[in-house]
Design brief:
- This protein has four helices and seven strands, in the order βββαβαββαβα.
- The chain is α+β, with helices and mostly antiparallel strands.
- Strands 4, 5, 6 and 7 form a four-stranded mixed beta sheet that branches. Strands 1-2-3 form a three-stranded antiparallel beta sheet, with no helix packed on it.
């Protein structure tokens, strides 16, 4: 076969040499292996982003739901009577922060979650409006953050916080000290 000079590369029949030359076309190398990487393995033809499984722990959903519920105006606190009492004692300890998960229970499946919330609302707010706003915010936050479908958010209002409840705490502390 005759050799030709073409643009700095020497060609000899079908074989080329020079920068960017495919490895199979270089003399002395065998035919390329055209078997795709991962051929025959499950998921090898899937996009990288869809390979594998993501599991979301219950605690993750509890925290997201707790934060989202507390963002709504009119929510004073969360949890039932006993959990609020225990939480109040624990929260007074200077170590750490109040538990964002207090008053939140969840069931988490592979693609769906159900959430139960216990709220204390401020006196004078519409409980129906607060419950609706809490549901909307919790569903939005959990679905956006986790990708799970929220099938239900059950809201239980356990108490109403009265303005004098804050004053009672201060007076009680003063009267106990002699």
């Amino acid at each position: 076969m005759a050799s030709q000079q073409t643009g700095g590369l020497t060609t000899s029949g079908l074989t080329t040499t020079g920068p960017g030359t495919p490895p199979a076309a270089v003399p002395g190398r065998g035919a390329p292996d055209l078997t795709p990487v991962g051929h025959g393995r499950p998921g090898a033809d899937e996009p990288a982003a869809t390979r594998g499984k993501t599991a979301i722990a219950d605690l993750v959903v509890v925290k997201i739901a707790g934060i989202a519920a507390r963002e709504i105006p009119g929510v004073h606190d969360m949890g039932g009577g006993l959990s609020r009492t225990i939480g109040a004692v624990r929260d007074r300890v200077p170590v750490g922060r109040p538990s964002v998960g207090r008053g939140v229970k969840v069931e988490v499946g592979e693609v769906q979650t159900a959430i139960d919330l216990e709220l204390v609302v401020e006196y004078g707010v519409s409980i129906a409006d607060v419950a609706r706003d809490v549901r909307e915010n919790v569903v939005s936050a959990v679905e956006r953050t986790t990708g799970l479908e929220v099938v239900e958010v059950n809201v239980t209002v356990n108490d109403v916080h009265l303005p004098e409840d804050d004053q009672d705490d201060g007076r009680t502390a003063e009267t106990r000290v002699s």
